[in-house]
Amino acid sequence: MKNNLLMRKHGKTFYWASFFLNKSNMEAIYSIYSFCRKIDDMVDDAKTVHDAKRKLFAFMEAWNKGKPHPVINLLNSIPKENWPNQKLVKNFLNGQISDIKFKSFKSEKELIIYCYQVAGTVGLMVCDIFRVKDKKMRYFAIDLGIAMQLVNISRDVYEDSVRHRIYLPESLIGKKTAIEVANPSNETAIKIDLARKKIIHLANIYFASASQAIDHLPKGAGLAVKLASALYQQIGYKLIKTSYKRNEKRCYVNTTSKALITLTILKKYLFSFKRRLKPHNKKLHKFLTTLPYSHT
Questions:
Q1: What is 87-101 written as a DSSP string?
Q2: Which of 212, 229, 266 shows the shortest CA–CA distance to 123?
Q3: Residue 123 and residue 7: Cα distance in Å, rounded?
């Protein structure tokens, strides 16, 4: 029940899409979301760097030694064989650790690796929930996670700058301080707008890749994932039409738009047929060759 409430509050898009899952998959997705969210909160909600490190390392020790921990307990409703594996948790934690003492990304490569760590890994965890074993299908799960995280980064530029984090790479906006991003000059705001458009365009490339595999997911799971993907992509489309500014409010898809998108996706899903899965574009993982389950 607590997992349900956490997702309803913080993961509204996923919560909306989850209603197309069967009960066991729905509860498992809530558990995975809560597990990842609570780890993320250890960093984001910490009052000091020392506090964040202490909480995160306490979790890591418990996870590595198989000891009880409040965050690990969130997975207790899932069969052990569907728990995130050691490689995925390790890489997810690497992304969180990089947030503790944050350094701005210099290049697209650093950005994509981070997106894999904090979101591509989650896509792979969801594969385990849906019992997707085909390694080629898992390439596309990584792509969907990366696409969604790129949208998150584009949406949360102002919020992240208040936390002294700039995820837009220096190759796109130049070397900027968090204060310059939070209180931008006209020139900086224009650079951020252009960078955001480029990142959303990049996200759409990863969305397009992921969409090829969604119809090959188990019945129900495919519909839920297709809907979550469409709703996230809609956030990107809305951002393209906005101009970045100080005190920017978080962009979201309202209930009416969600309902219309849901009806469209349902119609397409019910009257579509499964096409042959095309080969994955290896170039999308050119920065990920040393990371688990990527297309090398």
A1: HHHHHHHHHHHHHHT
A2: 229
A3: 16
Q: What is the pLDDT of residue 106?
A: 97
Backbone angles phi, psi at 31, to 5 degrees: -65, -45
Q: What is the pLDDT of residue 176?
A: 97
Which residues in 226-254 are b (16+ Cβ under 10 Å) and which e? bbbbbbbbbbbeebeeeebeeebeebebe
Look at residues 239, 235, 257 and name the one whose alpha carbon lies nearest to residue 248: 239
Mean pLDDT of 25-39: 94
Question: Residue 251: pLDDT above 90?
Answer: yes
DSSP secondary structure code for residue 284 in this structure: G
Query: Of 60, 172, 49, 198, which is closest to residue 106 (Cα–Cα)?
Result: 172
Going from the C-alpha of 222 to that of each of 29, 99, 193, 233, 265, the distances in angstroms are 14, 32, 33, 16, 11
| pLDDT > 70? residue 84 | yes
CB 158 within 8 A of CB 215: no
Report the pLDDT value the prediction gives residue 3, as an integer from 0 to 100: 67
In angstroms, the CA 127 to CA 134 distance is 9
Q: pLDDT value at position 279?
A: 95
- Please report the beta strands in 97-168, taking only residues with DSSP state E, as ranges in sequence order: none
CB contact at 8 A, 256 and 231? no
180, 188 Cβ separation under 8 angstroms: yes
pTM, whole model, 2 decimals? 0.96
